[in-house]
TrEMBL record:
Protein name stated in the entry: Alcohol dehydrogenase
Signal peptide: none
Native source species: Stephania yunnanensis
One GO location term (cellular component): cytosol
UniProt keyword list: Metal-binding, NAD, Oxidoreductase, Zinc
InterPro entries (alphabetical): ADH-like_C, ADH-like_N, ADH_Zn_CS, GroES-like_sf, NAD(P)-bd_dom_sf
SUPFAM superfamilies listed in its UniProt record: GroES-like, NAD(P)-binding Rossmann-fold domains
PANTHER family named among the record's database cross-references: ALCOHOL DEHYDROGENASE, ALCOHOL DEHYDROGENASE-LIKE 4
Swiss-Prot/TrEMBL cofactor(s): Zn(2+)
Quaternary structure annotation from Swiss-Prot or TrEMBL: Homodimer.
Length: 394
């Protein structure tokens, strides 16, 4: 591991002499689709203009990392690469022009950035950013179209992932993709706000705007799906139906507000089952599985005339939506949600405070904790359906 010692208390990086210099540290590098992660020493360049270099304290594993590791989308394959996008860390140094953060600040990296200046960031209609929005094809930094990661020997460039690359002791990000958090925040829990929990909560609160007394169906009870349940519960939904083939998820879901469970293996049609449970169907459904057959069932489970389906699952290309356009004439609507429609820099600090005040419960999402060196075992836990979030400590 790196010889730089950061405690989990705010401190100035004047105590060390890494500012402006290349850092040698440990990172988990993936060299090809499905190949085991190689934990090895790499070199990390200092940040350039409007960039920051962060010491990662905790990082966790999301299904998006799993999909990228497997190389399920061929157009997004690029190697060697450092994956990871859920984390919390402390700023080691800032590049020229960065004014909203300083060395020693605790921060959360976000894959969907916010520059605050473009027409998108200034609009109330979207949380996308013209330059720093989520882009799975992006693998270099915008400042110079180069990487900040290099192999120890060679050197050879190691590519970036989702504006973040958190499976490393040190990472470099555009400052637009970093959110400052309160110094007294519980760091393990805050890690969850980088992706899964924010995405699920925001889908219920912002995208769907779930109303008190409403009915909800959630297809896929991973961390995102259970975060949707938390969001719907906190909004006062009267019934929240969870759909998953893993019965262990049902036990976890009950603590997060799910009132009814359906195992697709036990019924001929999930949507028909939901129609029988709730006459006409639910008001809101959320697809969190990334499978077209599940998306269709989620769509058909909503009430005609006003039902809304929110897509949260990551779908492989080149698959297309399983609908005939005329089916939308029955009043059902369908929409996608990125990062729960939260503007990260503007709204994530408030969300963090709400979570810590008990508006939602974050305690149940971290199911496992392992040292960074056991990242391959952590991925296997997710593959086997045994973990929601496995936290890795660096």
């Amino acid at each position: 591991m790196s010889n730089i010692n950061y405690s989990h208390h705010q401190e100035s990086s004047s105590d060390h002499e890494t500012r402006g210099k290349t850092i040698t540290c440990k990172a988990a590098v993936v060299w090809g689709p499905g190949e085991p992660f190689s934990v090895e020493e790499i070199q990390v360049d200092p940040p350039k203009q409007m960039e920051v270099r962060i010491k990662i304290l905790y990082t966790s594993i999301c299904h998006t990392d799993l999909s990228a590791w497997k190389g399920e989308n061929e157009s997004q394959r690029v190697y060697p690469r450092i994956l990871g996008h859920e984390a919390v860390g402390v700023i080691e140094s800032v590049g020229e022009g960065v004014e909203d953060m300083r060395e020693g600040d605790y921060v959360v990296p976000v894959f969907n950035g916010e520059c605050g200046q473009c027409v998108y960031c200034k609009s109330d209609e979207t949380n996308l950013c013209e330059r720093y929005r989520v882009n799975p094809l992006k693998c270099v930094m915008l400042a110079d179209s180069k990487t900040r990661f290099w192999t120890q020997n060679g050197p050879r460039p190691i590519f970036h992932f989702l504006n973040t690359s958190t499976f490393t002791e040190f990472t470099v990000l555009d400052s637009a993709c970093v959110v400052k958090i309160d110094s007294d925040s519980p760091l393990k829990k805050v890690t969850l706000l980088s992706c899964g929990v924010s995405t699920g909560l925001g889908a219920a609160w912002n995208t769907a705007n779930v109303q008190p007394g409403s009915t909800v169906a959630i297809f896929g009870l991973g961390a995102v799906g259970l975060a949707v349940a938390e969001g719907a519960r906190s909004r006062g939904a009267s019934r929240i139906i969870g759909v998953d083939i893993n019965p262990d998820k049902f036990i976890k879901g009950k603590a997060m507000g799910i009132t009814d469970f359906i195992n697709p293996n036990d019924v001929d049609s999930v949507s028909e089952k939901i129609m029988k449970m709730i006459k006409g169907g639910v008001q809101y459904s959320f697809e969190c599985a990334g499978k077209l057959s599940v998306l269709r069932e989620a769509f058909l489970s909503t009430h005609d005339g006003w039902g809304l389906t929110v897509i949260l699952g990551i779908h492989a290309t080149p698959e297309m939506m399983p609908f005939h356009p005329m089916e939308l004439f029955q009043g059902r609507r369908i929409i996608g949600s990125v990062f729960g429609d939260f503007k990260p820099k503007t709204q994530l600090p408030l969300l963090a405070r709400q979570c810590l005040q008990g508006v939602v419960n974050l305690d149940g999402f971290i199911t496992h904790e392992l040292p960074f060196s056991q990242i391959n075992e952590a991925f296997q836990l997710l593959v086997d359906g045994k973990s929601l979030r496995c936290l890795l400590q660096l």
